[in-house]
Amino acid sequence: MEISEQEFQAAVLRGEEVRRNGYAVSAEYDAHQNRLVVGLSNGVVIMVPVHLLEELAEAGADDLAEIEISPAGLGLHWPRLDADVYVPALMQGVFGTRRWMAAQLGATGGRATSKAKADAARANGRKGGRPPRSTSL
Questions:
Q1: Which residues pair with 40 in a beta bridge?
Q2: CA spacing 20 to 30 A to 126: which of 21, 43, 101, 106?
Q3: pTM of the predicted structure, to 2 decimals
Q4: Which residues does the annotated region (Disordered) include (predicted)?
Q5: CATH top-level class for 5-95?
Q6: Would you kindly state where each structural domain of the chain is located, as residue ranges?
């Protein structure tokens, strides 16, 4: 596939626009806190618990310790894991695919506890629990 000079220049401009919001200048794995620490060009530091990152959630400390920053500073790469994280996505709070993030949110929501939820469960239990599903169509 060949790209025209005009398309190339447009891509360069898009990349420069993305970099204006900040790009990675440092990245390290904090094993003590089990989190990724990314320093941005604008002085912002992003700290994300590793278990929240789809590509890294199951990785070991040794594999997480080796991080490469892409030349543009927009990507982080873990060579031992062949895993990548897009820095602008981190800045937006996107830690994985939509499906994976929805599953994480659903798992967390299902574990939510409150006095009201406990009281409702007890009241439902006194009534005999959840009614059986109707088998009629």
A1: 24
A2: 106
A3: 0.65
A4: 107-137
A5: alpha beta
A6: 5-95
